């Protein structure tokens, strides 16, 4: 027999009026499709567990969400871009698939857990943004290779700090002054904020 958690009852009762029928429908379909499922509160919202996490649901101010832990294997899609889970921003029960389709998903998720199937959760790597160097900095590097080498040895974040410091100057005079100072510091292998780094001396 499955297990219902009174904390889930309280969660549904406290949800916005539009979300209550959505959460209640999901709950009933999950229990009907997997009679041994148990409810738990994890990360402050309801989860359904059977040999591991099956799925979860949540209510927010203007939408609800529902998703499978192994979503890519269950529904063939990963987490959506605009909401938690595989079904987007749910604002009414009809935004979900039919009970028959949901039941099939729940049964598939349960079977995957029973078989011990794992999902590889490799974090997505963010594409590094190309740092565009201002023309005057490139010109300065052409006449000061030591500064250029010092700049190249800096971390991407430190290089970006220099570029932003120079390009965000309000006047041409300030920009020129910052460029001169930056070239001197780069030639010495210093970062833009080297004075505040541990062990730095004036």
How many domains? The number is: 2
Give the number of DSSP strands: 4
Termini distance? 71 Å
Q: Could you give the order of strands across the largest sheet?
A: 1-2-3-4
CATH class of the largest domain: Alpha Beta
Which class best fits the helix and strand makeup? Answer: alpha+beta
Query: Please, what is the oligomeric state?
Result: single chain
CATH topology grouping of the largest domain: Aspartate Aminotransferase, domain 1
Q: Which runs of at least 5 residues are low in confidence (pLDDT < 50)?
A: none
CATH architecture descriptor of the largest domain: Alpha-Beta Complex
Instruction: Summarize the amount of helix as a percent range.
Output: 40-55%
Report on the biggest sheet. 4 strands, antiparallel
Number of helices: 8
Mean pLDDT: 89
Reading the helices and strands in chain order gives HHEEEEHHHHHH
Radius of gyration: 27 Å
Percentage of β-strand residues: 5-15%
Give an overview in words.
This protein is α+β, with helices and mostly antiparallel strands and 202 residues long. The protein is built from 8 helices and 4 strands. Strands 1-2-3-4 form a 4-stranded antiparallel sheet. Helix 6 packs across helix 8 and helix 7 runs antiparallel to helix 8. The longest helix has 16 residues. The mean pLDDT is 89.
Summarize the structure.
With 202 residues, this protein is of the alpha+beta class. It has helices at residues 6-14, 19-33, 71-74, 99-114, 135-143, 145-153, 156-167, 172-187, and strands at residues 38-42, 45-49, 53-59, 64-68. It is built from eight helices and four strands; from the N terminus they run ααββββαααααα.
């Amino acid at each position: 027999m499955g297990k219902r958690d009174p904390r889930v009852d309280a969660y549904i009762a406290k949800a916005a009026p539009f979300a209550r029928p959505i959460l209640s429908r999901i709950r009933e379909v999950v229990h009907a499709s997997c009679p041994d499922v148990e409810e738990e509160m994890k990360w402050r919202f309801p989860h359904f567990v059977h040999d591991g996490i099956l799925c979860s649901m949540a209510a927010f101010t203007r939408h609800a969400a529902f998703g499978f832990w192994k979503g890519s294997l269950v529904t063939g899609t990963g987490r959506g871009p605009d909401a938690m889970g595989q079904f987007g921003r749910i604002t009414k029960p009809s935004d979900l698939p039919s009970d028959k389709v949901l039941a099939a998903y729940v049964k598939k998720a349960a079977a995957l857990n029973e078989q011990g199937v794992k999902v590889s959760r490799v974090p997505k790597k963010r594409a590094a943004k190309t740092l565009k160097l201002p023309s005057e900095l490139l010109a300065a590097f052409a006449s000061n290779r030591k500064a250029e080498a010092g700049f190249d040895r800096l971390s991407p974040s430190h290089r970006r700090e220099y570029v932003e410091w120079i390009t965000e100057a309000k006047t041409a005079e300030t920009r020129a002054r910052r460029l001169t100072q930056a070239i001197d510091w780069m030639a010495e292998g210093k970062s833009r904020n080297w004075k505040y780094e541990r062990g730095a001396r004036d």
